Amino acid sequence: MKYYSTRDKAVRMESAEAIKMGLSRDGGLLTPETIPQIDEAFLTELVNARYQERAARVMGLYLTDYTYEELLGFAENAYGPDKFDTDAVAPVRKVDDATHCLELWHGPTSAFKDMALQMLPQLLSAALRKTGEDKTVCILVATSGDTGKAAMEGFADVPQTRIMVFYPKDGVSKVQETQMVTQDGANVGVCAVVGNFDDAQAGVKRIFSDEQMRATLADRGFFLSSANSINWGRILPQVVYYISAYCDLVRDGGIKMGDKVNFCVPTGNFGDILAAYYAKRMGLPVGKLICASNRNDVLTDFLRTGVYDRNRPFHTTMSPSMDILVSSNLERLLFDLSGENDEEVKGYMAALSKDGKYEVSDAIKTAVKEQYWGGFCDEAGTAATIADYYKNKGYLIDTHTAVAANVMEQYRKATGDETVTVFVSTASPYKFCNHVLTAIGETPVGDGVELLDQLNAVSGVTVPRRLAALKGKAQRFDMTAEKQNMDNVVLDFLKK
Ligand SMILES: *Cc1c(COP(=O)(O)O)cnc(C)c1O
Which atom of ligand 1 has the smallest separation from the CA of 271? Predict the structure, then answer.
């Protein structure tokens, strides 16, 4: 199967090439040319399969230049017991007969980013082999917290790769910062940037588009790529868990084969919920896709009106991984819903970069409303939902997951829809101890990893082992750079 650019369908390549490049040179996102179809027979076979086998089967439908054995091997490495704290990998927890929660944070960094970032380095390494690449790839990441750690954990000591992460000096949680500056691996680098996430992100983009820099690095035997969710190698492993959740529900009697389920997803860059959309387009019986935002409600407005308008205040919230005003992966949805009209998509994206807004066609508006329902939840609502789940359901959830749970209830009230609904849990509550403690009525004492014990003492919920281990871990990195110096940091890093 070939992949092409959402902004120019003439740009076509194999999946290995698409994963290696990350992003098309025209700025478009590389997207599969056709969406493979699955049926009940396919799902029935997966019902009793392990997660690793499900992953290899589903990914194999898209990555036709990788063999099943290869993909199964990658899945065994990515999702094995040394990485994940449950054999189920992505377990579905029952809340009540109509409500289930898909837990995606059982991996090494306790956020859902692990689901894709444990897989991507292996897909990328194989892509280097398959395309005969002799240079070393350097992954540059700007992170607001979760992606940077998960990417380093995935790429640590992977041959023919280096990874450099930039995070905003005062823009990540204490636990997140500790996770990053203690990272192991001879090929990793971490640097704090004086400024906010946008400064770090803009710096990385500048380096990517600097031809002089590319030439210098090529001379030294390096090329740059991205581990951001614009890379198809990050979206595809996420399609797997929606299909897996469906199979689990069938296996455990929550639904019958063929019944529809809704998914409610806490959304930022639109990667996770886009993966759910692909699962539905493949033929998985899915009803509504419920898109949950925090106070940064640009997607709620878009899904309701068809107007995407980023000209609005940016809110810093207790669910920081969803604090985002430009959701890059929406471009892939527009491409699909426009009947793969690259010119139309190019027009929307040009308007977005020029005016910060665009309005989609009536045809796309209708299609969006059929597939999606959008809602948002403010800070008070997030805290109240954490308290409600903890006190009334005995379930400790993190701030991002709470946004999803809250919006799911809003959807039910607004529509009366009683379809079985799975909401997605994207992070362990231990990554955001102080907000979670406050929400359940405790006063946080101390900061950072000190709070792990307090939350554990109050809730009795086990601390994820890698987070607990942070307490004894030596700091390896303490570099801070001004934003205009980020290119020198990269040049230094790639000297060795
Ligand atoms: C990244 C992230 C999200 C948002 O996912 P997108 O794919 O960007 O929409 C939600 N919750 C957590 C905890 C995350 O790390």
Answer: 7
Measured distance CA(272)–CA(424) in Å, rounded: 9
Tell me, what CATH number does 94's domain have? 3.40.50.1100
- Residue 317 alpha carbon to ligand 1 centre in Å: 13
E strand spans, 233-350: 261-266, 286-293, 307-309
Query: What are 398-438's pLDDT values in tens digits?
Result: 999 999 999 999 999 999 999 999 999 999 999 999 999 99
8 Å CB contact between 218 and 135: yes
Report the number of distinct structural domains present in the chain. Answer: 1
Q: Is 344 in the pocket of ligand 1 (CB under 6 A)?
A: no
Residue 260 lies in a domain: yes
Question: What pLDDT digit, counting tens, does each position of 132-145 carry?
Answer: 999 999 999 988 77
Report the distance separating Cα 34 and Cα 280, nearest Å.
Answer: 14
- Consecutive H or E run containing 165: strand 161-168
- Cα of 106 vs centre of ligand 1, distance in Å, is 15
Query: CA-CA distance, 14 to 455, in Å (whole number)?
Result: 47
Catalytic-role residue among 20, 83, 113, 365: 113
Domain assignment of residue 487, yes or no: no
- Report if residue 203 sits inside a domain: no
DSSP summary character for residue 187? T
Give domain status of residue 490, yes or no. Answer: no
By residue range, what is the domain housing residue 260? 86-112+233-431
Please give the distance, rounded to the nearest whole angstrom, from the Cα atom of residue 178 to the centre of ligand 1.
Answer: 20
Angle between helices 197-208 and 486-493 (to 10 degrees): 60
